[in-house]
Design a protein that fits this description.
By secondary structure, this protein is an all-beta fold. The protein is built from one helix and 37 strands. It has a domain at 13-197. Strands 1, 2, 4, 5, 6, 7, 8, 9 and 10 form a nine-stranded antiparallel sheet that branches. It has a seven-stranded mixed sheet with strand order 15-16-17-23-24-25-26, with no helix packed on it. A four-stranded antiparallel sheet has the order 3-37-36-35.
């Protein structure tokens, strides 16, 4: 998996606390249906599903790749509105007084992904408001008591949320105080999916609770089912790890998403002092059977070899899609980030079907068909970006010496525009022609990957834009 830019513990400015007028509050809570008690002890209210009422007009700078007029908007004078992207749904949250919440972050949350909507030391009563990403219609309003609200994924890979809480057993004077945690998972429709104990941020992936103990990774289905242990083989010091920030499991020099496309990894020669070649496998989450191994895979052209083996056997599984696995092989010995050779393998036959060179740090388009070379947090000699097709590595363009180096931020929802920053500010570039479409931008819209819609908040309101 291509690396992210690094992490830091911070409060996301774009989702700080929001106080709305009474008119705004009425708009945001306008939903019909009878109140019934939910499983969390709060009220579960079905929404009327009507499009958002007419909100303010967008008066900001044009946003290339998006319609000039907002598809829907919400009135607010605070540009720091909190929102959690759940695919077809955008999730907002209000406290007991009806005010929108600060979108707190936790240690280990990616600094470029909004995953945690709420976090508190004490349980609080919240109202979770599910809105259709295209229309702004309130599709569900769910009352919960929570200490945290986190975006996760369910067993079929669809977005979901984990509403976490904890309970503390006081010391009797001899025993130690004991705190236990749990979470209830909900679908984007607001229906309960299941519960899990021992909840930790970042440890719910594809409807499985990921636990790491004694150098062993275990994947336990929420709500019951067969647990899987990630194979971790090697010498006596073999140790396989899990990074909750990225969702990546690792064994020495091999890396893979802990669950991707219905598969989980295994790691061979995972010890720090194991001199056998490190390898990574894919295993079927349903059956537990191994379906692919880098040990049997054809090494793609471009990887530097020594005695017939890759000079540096750092291997990363990027993703599984459409019956194929995308694997990044490190091209040569060198400090990361460095050039990778990306290779597609058919999972049925194991055949190598395509390969190309690319960067290790990558920004992907919403549909995953395009990639742009990203800047490392520690890269002082960044020469600018390049854009290519992920299917076969076809290079669309690359920056040249003497240009202002563009550090990609994200693609527009339709994949036709690349937003990025230079030393002179943020700008938007046509993906096909490299033409600068806008510069000196004050905001780059977030992207709802399921719909391609972009959204942002300004001092004039919250706005959602259809892709052009």
């Amino acid at each position: 998996m291509p690396l992210t830019k690094g992490s830091r513990v911070r409060t996301r400015a774009a989702v700080a606390g929001l106080s709305l007028s009474m008119a705004s509050m009425a708009l945001l809570t306008g939903c019909g249906g009878d109140d019934t008690e939910s499983a969390t002890g709060g009220k579960d209210t079905e929404a009327a599903g009507k499009p958002a009422a007419s909100g303010p007009a967008y008066r900001g700078a044009a946003l290339p790749g998006y319609a000039p007029k907002a598809a829907w908007s919400l009135p607010t004078d605070n540009r720091e509105l909190g929102v959690l992207d759940l695919g077809q749904v955008l999730l907002f949250a209000k406290d007991a007084s009806g005010e929108y919440l600060t979108d707190a972050t936790v240690d280990g949350e990616p600094d470029d992904v909004n995953r945690v909507l709420f976090s508190s030391d004490e349980p609080e009563k919240l109202t979770l408001e599910f809105r259709d990403a295209r229309t702004g219609a309130v599709t569900k309003s769910l009352a919960v008591t929570a200490q945290s609200v986190e975006g996760v994924t369910w067993k079929d890979g669809t977005p979901a949320i984990a509403v976490g809480t904890s309970a503390t057993k006081e010391s009797d004077g001899l025993t130690q105080e004991e705190t236990t945690t749990s979470a209830t998972l909900y679908s984007v429709e607001g229906t309960e999916l299941g519960e899990t104990s021992g909840y930790e941020f970042g440890h719910i992936v594809a409807g499985h609770a990921v636990s790491a103990a004694d150098a062993t990774l275990t994947l336990t289905p929420v709500g019951g089912g067969t647990a899987r242990t990630v194979p971790c083989n090697g010498d006596d010091d073999a140790e396989c790890d899990f990074d909750a920030e990225t969702g990546i499991a690792s064994g020495d020099k091999t890396f893979a998403p802990v669950i991707t496309g219905g598969y989980y990894p295994g790691f061979e020669a995972a010890g720090n002092y194991d001199y056998d070649p490190s390898d990574v496998t894919l295993n079927d989450l349903t059956t537990g059977k191994q379906v692919w191994s880098s040990a049997d895979a054809e090494v793609p052209k471009g990887v530097v070899l020594e005695d017939g083996e890759p000079a540096d056997r750092t291997i990363r599984i990027v993703k599984v899609t459409d019956g194929k696995v995308l694997v990044a092989w490190k091209k040569d010995i060198g400090l990361s980030p460095t050039t990778q050779v990306y290779a597609w393998y058919d999972l049925t036959s194991g055949a190598l079907t395509a390969s190309y060179e690319g960067g290790q740090l990558v920004v992907y388009s919403a549909d995953g068909s395009l990639a742009a070379l990203d800047k490392s947090e520690f890269d002082t000699g960044f020469d600018g970006t390049a854009v290519w097709k992920t299917a076969d590595g076809t290079r669309l363009w690359a920056q040249e010496e003497g240009e202002n180096a563009l550090d990609p931020i994200r693609f527009s929802g339709n994949g036709e525009v690349l937003y990025g920053s230079t030393g002179d500010g943020e700008l938007a570039v046509d993906v096909k022609t490299r033409k600068v479409l806008a510069k000196d931008l004050t905001a780059v819209p977030a992207v709802n990957t399921a719909t391609g819609y972009g959204y942002l908040a300004t001092e004039d309101g919250f706005f959602a834009f259809a892709p052009e």
